[in-house]
Structure formats: C-alpha cells, structure tokens
Give the backbone structure.
Amino acid sequence: MTHLAQSTDLSMFVTHNASGHAHMDLAVEGVGCASCIRKIENGLKKTPGVVDARVNFTDRRVAVDWNDDTLTAGEVIEVLEHIGYEAHPFQPARVESEEAKQARWLLRCLGLAGFAAMNIMLLSVSVWSGNASDMTQETRDFFHWLSALIALPAAAYAGQPFFQSALRALRTRQVNMDVPISIGVVLALGMSLVETATHAEHAYFDSALMLLFFLLCGRYLDHAMQRKTRAVAGNLAALKADTAHRFGQNQEIVVVPAAALRPGDRLLVRPGERVPADGVVVSGTSDIDESLVTGETHPRSVSAGATIYAGSVNFNGALTVRVTAAGAGTLIDEVQRLLDKALETKSRIVRLSDRAARLYAPVVHTAAAVTAIGWLLAGASVHDAIITGIAVLIITCPCALALAIPAVQVVASGALFRSGVIINAGDAIERLAAIDTVVFDKTGTLTLPDMRVENAADVAPAVLENAARLALSSRHPLAVALAHEARQRLPFENAIEETGQGVRAIIDGVEARLGSAEFCGRTAASAGSDTEASVIFYSHGTVAVAFSIRQQLRPDAVAVIQALRERGVALHILSGDRSSAVAPVAKALGIASWQSGLKPADKIAFIESSKRVGCNVLMVGDGLNDAPALAAAHVSLSPISASDITQAQADGVFLGERLAPVLDAVAISHRARGLMLQNLWLAVIYNAVAVPIAMAGFVTPLIAAVAMSGSSILVTVNALRARRRGVSP
Amino acid sequence: MNVLVYLVPMALALGLAGLAGFLWSLRNGQYDDLEGAAVRVLDDGDICSNKE
C-alpha cells in the first residue's frame, strides 16, 4: 500500500474548511483499544502541519485537519502507516451526513421528551397522592396547568418524528403505526387541556409525554443501529477501493483512486492487477480472469478491441485500456436491462409492522367510538361518554405495538452484525425469516473468491515456505495464490521477476525458480490431468514441485450446507461456469440440483419459476451476472468480495472467508421473526386486558401510566432474547 | 402549602438545567462517538505524559 500513499492523487478526498485547513476522513484498520486512539492522535498531532486529529472509535475513522502548505494528503497517510495503521481515504456519502443530522434531531427530541415526561410525572405523582389525601382543587388545577405548560410545547417538538411520518402516510392514503400514535397523543393532550379548564380530577399529560419518550427511545436505537452498519459498510468500501494507473496528458502515469476515473481516461492495467473500470482494450494482449463478472473460472484471452469489465483480474500481459461509460459494455447492458425489469416486477412486500398497523388502527378507533356511543345510550352525559372514549384511545395507544417490531429488529441486526452480516434493507430480517429455498452461485460464493494451492499438504514444509516466499515477489495471480501459504511474509531480497515467465532468486546459494514449465526447465505434460487446476512450477536445485492451484470451497461450506439442509431448506446451485467445474462442487456439497453455463437471464428465469410455485428464494451470489437474480429473489446476500453493482442489489453483505454467516443470517432472522410475532401477541393480550377496563370507564391516569410503561418494558425485554448468536457449526 | 411557591419553581429549574446540559453536550458532539468515550476514559496517557 506504500505506493498508494506516495504517489496517488488524493485530491478528490480532501475538502477545505472555513479556516482554510485541508480536511480528510480516513477509514483506519486495526483500531481496537484505548491506546490506539492515543497513538494515532498524538502521532498525527506531533507531525508538523497537522492542525487537528480526532479518532472516532465507533466508526473506526480518523478525521484529520492539516495545513495545505506544509503537508500533503499522501504524507498524512504515510504518517499513519509509520505509526502502524493502514488508512484508506474515505469520501463520506451524503446519506451519512444526512443521517448524522437526523440522529441528532432524534436525540434532541428524546432529551426534550425525557425532561418533560419526568417533570410532569413529578407533578402528576403529587396530584395522584394529593387526590387520595387533602389536596385542594386550586392546587390541583395549578399543577395541571403547569403540566400543560410543559407538555404542550414539548409534545409539539418531540412529537414531530411521528406527526411528520403520519402525515406522509395519510397523504398517500395509507395507514402506518404513526397514525394511531399521533391521534392518541393529540387527543390525550387536547382532552387533558379541556379537563384542566373545567377543573376536572384527571389529566393525561404524563401519559402522552411518556409515550413519546418510550417511542423515541425505540426510534433512536433503530436509527443508531442502521447508522452503525452503514458506517461499517462505508469503511469496507474504502478498504476495498482500487487504484488505477492513468495516463496523464504527457503520457506520464498517475495513480488515481478508481472512483476518480472518467469515461475516456486511458489506463495501464499491469499483470496481476484488478481491472479498475469497464473499458475497451486499446493495445496489448493478455488473459483475464472474469470469475467475478461471469462466474467463469477459465481465463479469457483479450486483445485490442475487446471489452473488459471492472473486477476482472489481468493475468499475464500489460493492457492499455480506454474507460467507457458505465453500462456501455454488452454484458453490463444486458445486466442493467434485466435489473430494471426485476425491480419493476418485484412486488412490494408489506412489512409486518405496517400490516399490524392496518389491522390495529380501525379496530381501536371503532372500539373508542363504540365506547362513547355505548355510554351515551346508557344515559351518561356527552362529556363523560367522550372522555371514556378517549381514555380507550389513550390506553390502547400502541406503545407496546410500536416497539414490538423495531426493538427486535435492533437487537437482531446487532446479532447479525456480530456474526459478520451487514444488512442493507430494513425489512431484510423479516424476508430472510420466510425463506424455504436457497440458490447459490458457485464461483466466489461457495468457493473462496481467490484461488488456493490444492496440494500444499503434499509438499515438504520447508520447500513450500521457500516457494511461497519467492511467490511474494510476483504479482501473477497464481503466485499470489501460492504466496498465501507463506508463514513469514518476507520476500527474498534478490528476487527478479521476468515478465510473463516467472521469478527467480538465489536461495542458500542455489538458484530457485518459480513460474511456467519452460522457465523451470520442465515439460508442461508433468502438469497432470486435472483440467480445472492451473499449475505453477517450482525448482530449487534437485527439488522440483508442481503446485496445483484452483478454486476451493469455503472452509465450512460442507457443514453449512448440511445445516441448511437439516433446517429443511431446498438448495440449488446456479453457475455461469462450465459443467465440468460445477459438478465436483455440487458433488462435494451433496447438492443434487445444479445448473451450469447459465446467463443472467437464465438465473432470473429459474428464480421466477420458483416464485411461481410459491417458494421464497434466498439468492446468494457475488458476480456481476448474479445482480439481476439478487434483485429478483425474495431476499439476497452477497459476500464482501462481490462486485459493486452486485453488492448494491443485495439485501445484505457477509464478511470473511466462511459461509457460516449465511446460515447465521437465516437462523437469527428466523428467531427474530418469532420474537416479533410473540411481541405482537403480547401487545394484543395487553390490549385485550386494558381495553375492557377503559371501556368500563375505570381508567385513571395512574392506571394508564403503569399499563403503558409495563407493556413497553415487557416487549423490549422480550426483544433482547434476539441477542443470541447464530448457530454456526 | 406556601412552600410550593419555592419548591415548584426549583424543581422546574433543576429539570431545565438538566435539559440545557443535555442539549449543550449534544451540540458539543459528545454523542458522536459513544464507544470511543468508553475506552478513552481508560487511557491515562495524559497523566503519564504530565509526569514526564
């Protein structure tokens, strides 16, 4: 990464603030403890030119302000590298700063509601105990007016999140949970005001504010969890961000972040590098590995005029590439067209909480009306009848119901997060819980995204170590795979790479070579008969080894597939790769239903036909060719190594080399949905008990306060049971 | 009940002081990095560097 810091043009990440200092946000790897914070901040602040440095430990980021005259952005990264932390410049997405603002607003509402609820409760408790003893009517009225003075402005401000959302829903002629909440709060406050003016005994200011306080707690936590996952996703994007070698005006090469590339730019793609953008080859010939794009593991040879896609890996020759606008390639065109179609036909799945709200609002409002009319018919005064009707609305105000689902969602996303799954879509948990079929892509999903040495165990450890250390000096993809085996990541100092052939170095006085068969003085015939494996040769004196390098299954794939099968989930493999490559994988995993050589349209067709017979499909895939299928499926996951377009379509992303997060996601979501339903039932039972009491006219503000906080705490505590981790083998 | 003349305003003033404090801390960015605050308190580097 050193080359990145020294020569990259980082200007796109740097902003200038009001005082003229340059500012940059960096995602930092390896910040794990208190001393890291101090090391980074002190180290940066000691550097001449740095004005301010602040670590955000929650988001694992550093914000640095420096003086442009004495320091460059690259030097800031170098300083961090020197301290021992790898930092990646980060372009804060607009969404994130919007969300930060939203979070502060919610917190301000929460603070205000908390203050108001507590102070009104202080007055209310006095009134309640005074009612039982000897409080004069004047004192009670005074306390009620004081409560109104606090409650009305506080509710007008702190209730905004609910009022706004309710209005939005009503404008589109829909009902969400915020509609009954808003109606309940407004009616409770209005009735209390009227009652206070008529010197009545009961006012419900405390209930209204307490309701807002509880609900804002839930809403803030929900928001904070979303923000956290988004921050982590942003950091991963920064860590993953590629750089590109761009030709400048005078044919000099500038290293730029891939995000800064524009159509028309000319790039140099060297052997072993990942193609940073879609483009057309201008000159040069090479083999490129497009497994991330099409799932095909066999390299394709390209020459001038060929279209290549971002995410492919260049094998052996240097290519000059002209960047084309995104969507210009034929494959991308097809993927985009299918994507649009898939998104169009994707039926809007109604969220559980909205379904509950649609059922709940009419029932409750009818109950309130029936109560008022019933009391009128029974001969009560209009005033008493209306008061009782409103009391029904207050006591049923969906505190528990509105917390029932978000509380579980917050806790479950936390559990998913710890299992290495980052959820993009809010309702993904609900959808994941419903799946009965899992469709896997093969390349990069069931198999590891990069190749591994298959016969490492058959080679003497000392020989393997030497070969692997020699491989560290080459950027060829096969050598990179071999280099994974190096225990000491120390390249040999005298290693020389001969482009297109291999590397050689003097080890213990004897020349060692790593590369093609000819380069190592062998015949290609000694490669063996496995057509799926690529072979790299190593010779050192009398030692001669052929390393067989191929795609390998994720280490826990067999166990995870077995566990999924035990859960009764139907499993399929849909791959764009050749059948000779897919068959062994399907056999190893024991998946009988597999198809190979599929185009993106074929994958969609399969998923659509499963949907028609009523299956809820979870699609797990990483290639560009999987993107439309991910969008078409009921719910989708992709590994973090997936291409950008694909990740954008997935409902969630999982980290690491293991496949276990997929199983965890299914298990945790399943449990979460169970808890959501349980919570809804708890809320229903609460209402079933409370409503008759309210209808009978026995509700006092004290009963309302106890019932509401009791039910809210009950569902929240129940939601905490979603904390348990997944069931990874 | 004359004592209420003092006690009620005092109670409200205390509550408002708490609210003002909360809003100040919010504006001050003290809720931006909650995990960081939790680990920063364990770091006694500032004390050590004073001794040096």
User: Anything to note?
Assistant: Chain B has three helices and no strands. The radius of gyration of chain B is 19 Å. The CA atoms of residues 23 and 29 of chain B lie 10 Å apart. Helices of chain B lie at 4-27, 34-40, 45-51.
